[in-house]
Amino acid sequence: MARSTPDGYTLLVTTDTVVTSNPRLYQELEFKADRELVPVIYLANTSQTLMCHPSLPLRSVADRVTYARSHDVSYASGGKGVPVHLAAEMFQAATGLRMTHGPFKGPNAAMQGMIEDHVQCGFLSTAVVMPHVKNSRLRALAVTTARRSPNAMELPTMSEAGIAGYEATFGDLVLAPRGTPPHVVATLNETFSGVLAHRAG
Q1: Domain map of the chain by residue range?
Q2: For residue 199, what pLDDT is reported?
Q3: Residue 22: in which H helix or E strand, if any?
């Protein structure tokens, strides 16, 4: 991506961790996104949801914390350093819990690992997991954002559920190779903004 011709025809749609946390978590990256890419537009905030397998006797975040204090608990993520892994690490820091990390090769594999009860809990993308919550394959306890998710208004935020001050909000954004002419970036931003405004309307 960083080596692509900076002409506005090659863009990267990704999570904001590519430019926020990845350069600090991974010292051996072939490129530094925050140096070699330029922002086009911030698309949207994304929430994660604290999930557990329905076989566990957990109905709330408080249940989850109490259970983890007396049981070994594993949690799934789509890999080290991805948003759901960071959300889980923040949860451990906020509660003083220690859980066993089970990194999978991507979010779909992590979700399947939870559904099949290979791991007990995890943070997964709210929009993606809610169909599995509705058919009782997974149980949702709370969302990580400061406000309730429009994809799951019935779920409390982590703060509402008793983890004061907890917020793990991530975002999706569009990036272009550094060197893309400013007028091209401006045109792309205007085009994306128009699409987003149309969808919001």
Answers
A1: 46-143
A2: 64
A3: helix 22-25
Question: How many other β-carbons are positioned within 10 Å of the β-carbon of residue 118?
Answer: 15
Paired sense of beta strands 139-143 and 48-52, if any? antiparallel
Residue length, the chain?
A: 201
Q: How far apart are alpha carbons 51 and 125 in whole angstroms?
A: 10
Looking at residue 186, what is its pLDDT?
A: 95
- For tokens 């007396």, the residue is 70
Name 170's bridge partners. Answer: 46
- In 61-106, which residue ranges form alpha helices assigned H by DSSP? 61-70, 83-95
At 200, the pLDDT band (50, 70, 90 cuts) reads low
Full-model pTM:
0.79
Could you please state the CATH topology (level 3) that the domain comprising 46-143 is classified under.
Answer: D-Maltodextrin-Binding Protein; domain 2 (3.40.190)
Residue 3: count other Cβ atoms within 10 Å of its Cβ.
10
Mean pLDDT over 135-151 rounds to: 92
* DSSP one-letter string for 141-193: EEESSSS--TT-TTSPBTTTTT-TT----EEEEEEEETT--HHHHHHHHHHHH
